[in-house]
């Protein structure tokens, strides 16, 4: 038997390497194929009368007020090396030390409660039951809040309930178009599992249309506009934030939501920095039975667009918010602070100000009229 030629082995090795690289590139290309679609579609503001005539729209973009340019926060600038370095290096305590406790599937009452009940699924995703109707807030059921399933912030806990197991809802509310609030795969799954319309701020309809949402299921609102669905009324109210799913910013509007039944009301802040508008919203729409208030991912670099825990309590008081249910924490590592710091700071400030708070586990349903006693389930995980 003749000896093998070393050149043959080298040649086969190169072919194997090339094949491996080609397979890897092919797999990556397949995994990234939906990234362009996930960016959505910017609205044609030039030909959309509702956008052009919005008091929040000027010089081609939306603004936090008619007299103020919507600022790109320093912490979100790609040139801010300080924030980027901190995000990459200051990792201590930013993820829980043990698995986050979840509440498994509970059979929702049929029909929805005649009072007010709220089920928090993690981050800002929640189901509001109010006087016989159901409202789904900012649903994200994907493993990552990102245009790609390969990169981006990953869940710190599984979804407590499969999306297809949710009861029928009357409307899906979206606060703005960032990936941790508007998720393309979740929207596509909701198209199959639900028949409810999507109520969204101006411009976000372009994203939904690109993803196949039919026109009759899209309701676009400007600030202070409302939509009535049977006995349920939802009103888009102001927030101090920004928008964008790529390098283009503020081509779609952002906001908060007032959810009103015949006699009961719930408020959802969406993402927002503290601003003077909370007093006006409370005066016009409050008092509320409960408020879902954003508390996580705050920092000095983005104080204008995310509430600190102390500002969350202040905003809640000005809203006359009733029971405070903190959201926008726990599920994704999006900030520079330790994982449990938002809830610990919130509870300290709420106690000092006499504000009632409940902190559900992901998947836990809270009867607003009879909330459970506070159980510091997060304490051993920090």
General description of the model:
This protein has about 375 residues and is α/β, with parallel strands linked by helices. It is about 25% helix and about 15% strand. The chain has 9 helices and 15 strands. It has helices at about 5-30, 35-40, 50, 80-90, 185-195, 205-210, 275-285, 310-320, 340-355; strands spanning about 55-60, 60, 115-120, 125-130, 135, 170-175, 200, 220, 225-230, 230-235, 255-260, 265-270, 290-295, 325, 365. It has a 7-stranded mixed β-sheet. The chain has a 6-stranded mixed β-sheet with strand order 9-10-11-12-13-14, with helices on one face. A two-stranded antiparallel ribbon has the order 1-2. A hairpin with a 2-residue loop joins strand 3 and strand 4 (about 125-130). Helix 8 packs across helix 9 (about 340-355). It is globular. The N and C termini lie far apart (about 65 Å). The model is unreliable at about 15-30 and about 70-75 (pLDDT under 50).
How do you describe this structure in short?
The chain has 382 residues and is α/β, with parallel strands linked by helices.
Biggest beta sheet attributes: 7 strands, mixed
Helices, by number, come to 9
Radius of gyration, whole Å: 23 Å
| Strand residues, percent | 15-25%
Number of strands: 15
Mean pLDDT: 89
Span between N and C termini?
66 Å
Q: Helices and strands: which structural class? A: alpha/beta
Neighbour order of strands in the largest sheet: 8-7-6-5-4-3-15
Unreliable spans: 17-30, 69-76
Give the CA-based shape: globular
């Amino acid at each position: 038997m003749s000896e093998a030629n070393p050149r043959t082995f080298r040649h086969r090795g190169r072919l194997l390497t090339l094949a491996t690289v080609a397979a890897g590139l092919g797999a990556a290309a397949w995994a990234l194929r939906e990234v362009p679609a996930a960016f959505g579609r910017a609205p044609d503001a030039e030909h959309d009368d509702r956008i052009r005539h919005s008091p929040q729209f000027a010089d081609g973009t939306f603004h936090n007020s008619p007299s103020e340019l919507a600022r790109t926060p320093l912490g979100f600038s790609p040139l801010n090396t300080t924030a980027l370095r901190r995000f990459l290096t200051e990792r201590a305590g930013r993820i829980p030390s043990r698995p986050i406790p979840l509440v498994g599937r509970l059979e929702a009452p049929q029909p929805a409660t005649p009072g007010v009940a709220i089920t928090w699924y993690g981050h800002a995703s929640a189901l509001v039951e109010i006087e016989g109707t159901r409202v789904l807030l900012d649903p994200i059921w994907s493993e990552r809040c990102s245009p790609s399933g390969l990169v981006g912030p990953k869940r710190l806990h599984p979804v407590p309930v499969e999306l297809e197991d949710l009861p029928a809802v009357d409307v899906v509310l979206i606060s703005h178009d960032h990936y941790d609030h508007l998720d393309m795969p979740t929207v596509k799954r909701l198209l199959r599992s639900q028949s409810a319309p999507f109520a969204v701020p101006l411009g976000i309809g372009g994203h939904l249309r690109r993803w196949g949402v039919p026109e009759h299921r899209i309701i676009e609102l400007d600030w202070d506009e409302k939509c009535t669905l049977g006995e349920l009324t939802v009103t888009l109210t102001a927030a101090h934030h920004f928008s964008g799913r790529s390098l283009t910013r503020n081509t779609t509007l952002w906001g908060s939501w007032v959810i009103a039944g015949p006699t009961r009301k719930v408020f959802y802040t969406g993402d927002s920095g503290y601003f003077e508008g909370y007093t006006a919203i409370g005066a016009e729409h409050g008092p509320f039975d409960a408020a879902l208030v954003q508390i996580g991912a705050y920092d000095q670099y983005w104080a204008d667009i995310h509430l600190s825990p102390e500002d969350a309590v202040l905003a809640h008081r000005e809203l006359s918010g009733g029971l405070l249910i903190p959201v926008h924490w726990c599920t994704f590592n999006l900030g520079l602070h330790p994982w449990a710091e938002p809830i610990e700071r919130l509870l300290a400030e709420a106690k000092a100000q006499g504000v009632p708070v409940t902190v559900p586990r992901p998947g836990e349903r809270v009867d607003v009229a009879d909330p459970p006693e506070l159980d510091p389930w997060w304490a051993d995980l920090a």
